Amino acid sequence: MKKKAKRKGPKKAAKKGQKKSVKKIKKTAKNRTVQKSAKPAEYKTVFISLGSNVGDREEYIEQAITLLRETPGIKVIRRSSNFETQPQGRKNQPLFINAAVEISTNYSPQNLLELLQGFEDTLGRDRSLEWGPRTIDMDILLYSNELISEDNLTVPHPLMHERLFVLEPLKEIAPNVVHPILERTIKELYHDKKAEGMESEKYDEDLPGFREVKRGIADDYERW
Known about the structure:
Layout: H1 10-37, E1 44-52, H2 57-69, E2 74-79, E3 83-85, E4 96-105, H3 109-122, E5 137-143, E6 148-150, E7 153-155, H4 164-173, H5 186-196, H6 210-213
Antiparallel strand pairs: 1-4, 1-5, 2-4, 3-4, 6-7
């Protein structure tokens, strides 16, 4: 005589179903956590200056921009024209070609700095002579509206408002962008500097916040 299969009571069936639901919820939560941690970093708008006064200057500028375009995590939004400018610091050297680019990137400021320095090395940058000739120079001018003061990086670049060769190409692509400390547009800064009719080495120490962001200027700081 066959034994009848025991029917599971409603309580046991419900309990088993509840266990399955809990497992499903835990698994879903775990998946959401993984997805959240894998979320890509937010893209920021960054402005970079470029300069070259060695060899085929225009070609070095183009190669630097190409390296930016080909880097995952970086989108080149727009670039300026090339401007020929007088050298600063050491006058006895060839004229520069200067340009500026706007990029959108999810690189952190420090990672972007390392990337740009790697590009400079790739394109034969010689760092042995301060203020000297260079195949390519790439500097972070603005990183969104962030204020950065670290040993090897100061943003906004503390000399950008003093350099016509920086402001002129930047004005072409971002005239209405506001300097986050000086609270003036790039176009206004350019015309202010143009009206002075000269370059200077001064720092605006009395401006609120400027002393904090210029701390990165040191003997080993990459100046131009």
